[in-house]
Amino acid sequence: MPEQQQWTITATEQPPEWFIQAVKQYTPASSGLYAAQLLWQRGIKDRQQLTAFINHKAYQPASPFEFGQEMHLAIARLQQAYNTKEKIAIWGDFDADGITSTSVLWDGLGQFFAQNTQLVYYIPNRLKESHGLNNQGIDNLAKEGCKLIVTCDTGSTNIEEIIYAKQLGIDVIVTDHHTLPAERPPVAAIINPRYFPKEHQLFNLSGVAVGYKLVEALYQSLPNVAKYPLEDLLDLVAVGLIADLVQLSGDCRYLAQMGIQRLQEDFKQPAAARRRPGVGRLLELCQKSGDRPTDISFGLGPRINAVSRIQGDASFCVELLTSRDVKRCNELAEVTELANARRKSLQKDVQAQVAQKLTQLDLSTTSVIVLEDAQWPAGVLGLVAGQVAQETGRPTILLSTEGAGEAGEAGEQGSRGAGGAGGEITSLSSNSELRTQNSELILARGSARSVNSVDLYQLVKEQAHLLHRFGGHPFAAGLSLLVENIPLFTAAINQQLRQSLGSTTLTPTVQADLTVTVADLGKELFLELKLLEPCGMGNPVPKLLIQNCWFENSWHRNQQDWQGKKVQYIKAEFDIRDDSTRNAFPGLWWGHYKDELPIGRCDCIAELDYNTFKKRYEIRLIAVRSSANSALNTQLSLTPFILDLRNQEHSATQHSGLIIEDCPTNWDDLRMWLRRCLVSSRSTSGLENQQQLAIAWSKPKHQPPNQIWLTLVGIAKYLSRTNQLVTRGQLLEKIGISDQTLLVGIKALKYLGFTVQRQDRSLQFTWNPNDSVENLADEAVARFLAAVREEQFQQQYFAEVPLSTIVAIASYDSK
Description:
six-stranded mixed β-sheet, alpha/beta, 42% helix, 27 helices, globular, 815 residues, five-stranded parallel β-sheet
């Protein structure tokens, strides 16, 4: 099904040295260069920005009253309800952002209004109702005696429904982050960050974060009422923010960082002691620990979303997220897991059917993919459409006539997608009422997803005359139309996009951020890239390009649902290798069989991850292709760039370019020089204008490891006896070992009774021989000797490694 993908790598500008050093403070175990490049290219370019981005404690969040008069009006209305004991209804939404929004208001407002008596909540049914307010629901709340509705993640454009509620004596406070109405609706207050300019730190708040800001303002206005701290809500805020795929910048990033921290802290507690046992049980079911943003985006978010996709009614999810009844939460978590298993099964079936239909399309003449089927369940169409759009590089619309009678009565549900701008219905065709009254006219309902910066909402809007209802944003839309109009709609929307594209060709694109080798993969790089978390829109998970690599020990297995009853999807596992190291690195490829891995050398794009279940670092494969002769061509262009002056006395003194005279002990040391030179060369007119890099180290003359150990002990005793200080650089020069090996030696000295203390940039040694623990000391000394032997072996290797191998490593970073 997928077309040939176009691979691109993000243009990198070499960050200045001061910035690299500033980032390195947060990555003491590595150079910090990769993280510095990513941060710099993503707009973090001064110390204050860097500190606030990495350390949430240094960030100053905005006051909730930054929303100005609207927030003051909302708080005044809530205080009135508090004083007169009015009944309030929370009107939520059925996706993960809407469910967490409802839960935050339920817990937050529940500190001021008695739950289930003064405070109730209502969540529309995904399969029967649309996003937003509806008159029938408002009627029911009026009968229950509600005098105030507080929406969350919805309501901004429900002008007619707001007027209807007002006629029934119900005020409405809207908290939302979706499309703004043309004029301010007749509400008690409307709190929507879209009123801010795009650069404002609150502009990207999702529905759950807007709800949190309302609760925060109420906490500040009535400071002595709440029993539980406001921060108890932050874990739910993080779940909603990350699941809704909003841009994690400004307060969004701050709230997500704080929330993930609290999520992890709560998960570490015994089940009976957790504040949110339901969340904890969900994490257990998906084998996550809550410490990574991906635990939400791949674990909690899909499970919460699955309930409404499969069952329609997701109201019980609020109880799952907020109840402290462990037994009840376990029951609800298992129901949620079953819904997610069912969602996976349906999605897999629809994907297979869509793939079959795609074989009948000529993609060379298709700009917008429009497919329909009477058996497709509407709840999973958005997920499948998103996958097809990514694989084909074309906007994709999938339509279903399943349950057409209900769709005709209820209208279009809308849909959610990347960016979180929502799928509220913002337009209704003029003759829709006539259509729904005629039961013989069958409506198709569907979801649409876009790629390649194509404004999908505008595309659909241009065909409004053919639609029953539609709504959405540039990345995603929901729509319904008469089945008889589908051919005309398909032809019109394709013609429209072809005209707007001109000669531009739509192709699936995969973007890589960094070029690395297998030797780079592991804990150090993971911790370096972790500085960017939580990732999301505007700050995506770093994609790593690994070139001229190959796969070994590949195998695949069918992944069954949590009860082991049915195959849900498959995954391939493998070891990846290249010429940069003798060690393989593990990885997996979700949704693929091992036979799909290419034979021989290839290039791949992957994400680096930590598997908390297997307790290992691994890559998650995104895309792979045969590398052919691309590496060879690059090597030929780099051969004159690297000059080999090893073991040639005085030759380096005549060289005007960059010189490396110290023999490296690992590829990281050498690669750092190569990478800096290559990045520098890209800023000129080409490699031919770059000064050559001379590798000019000599074959090392090694002392026996035991002699090095005795020298280190002798120096330590001398320094202890004379009470002199020594710098680490002085020690390294005297003993002739690397900094990393010296640290192993210092640990061994401690078991012999030495105390090593820092004083400014120097070290002070004190010896207390009676403190020695003989058996532990022997083990520590053995580790030091092994480290020295390994280092000497590596230096011997780099003294003799062919220049072609060094050029090959450089070629990986040059592409």
